[in-house]
Write a structure and sequence with these properties.
180 residues, elongated, two-stranded antiparallel ribbon, single chain, CBS-domain, alpha+beta, 8 helices, three-stranded mixed β-sheet
Length: 180
């Protein structure tokens, strides 16, 4: 499927960056201050990784070691990238398949920007369904399943929930309202 929009049209051209040797506290403050969910990690002016909110939570906060880590300890270095002339459909598909929300935009080792799921959804909201297609409801097995009978519901006369709703005089009513 093609949308007609190229990655370069949707991407953030000057994403927020941080030095590889910065603290996680500095990274988190920068994310909060700039209202972003990820930072590009640089070393000597070159993009070498991405640090996301999820990285901070899963790799540092959850282990109780936020103060001990630098950005370089938890950043993602195996960059999955996309070229600027690709269709945004390809970008959102890559994000879905790799369970990520941020793609550095690069071509021939040249960095162009960062495209995020939010960037794409701003210009093509119809792609939302594709994004959530692979989301698994992890709690599903733990949730009780309630079988709702066709007879239970809200009484159209009193507005109360009842386990015994039946049609009466053209409305769905509980047994108390039918007696009135």
């Amino acid at each position: 499927m093609k949308t007609g929009f190229k990655v370069i049209e949707a991407m953030t051209h000057n994403p927020v960056r941080i030095n590889v040797n910065s603290t996680l506290k500095k990274a988190a403050l920068l994310m909060a201050e700039r209202h972003v969910g990820s930072l590009l990690v640089e070393d000597k002016g070159n993009v070498i990784g991405v640090l996301s909110e999820q990285d901070i939570v899963r790799k540092a906060v959850a282990k109780g070691n936020v103060g001990k880590f630098l950005v370089k300890h938890i950043m993602e270095t195996k960059l999955i990238t996309i070229e600027p002339d690709k269709d945004i459909f390809e970008a959102i598909t890559m994000m879905r398949d790799h369970n990520i929300r941020h793609l550095p935009v690069m071509q021939d080792n040249k960095f162009y920007g960062l495209v995020t799921s939010k960037d794409i959804l701003k210009i093509e909201p119809d792609l939302f369904e594709l994004m959530v297609e692979k989301i698994e409801l992890k709690e599903e097995k733990n949730k009780p399943i309630y079988n709702i009978s066709e007879r239970e519901g809200i009484c159209e006369l009193c507005g109360e929930y009842s386990e015994e709703i039946t049609p009466y005089d053209g409305a769905l009513m509980c047994s108390r309202c039918k007696e009135i």
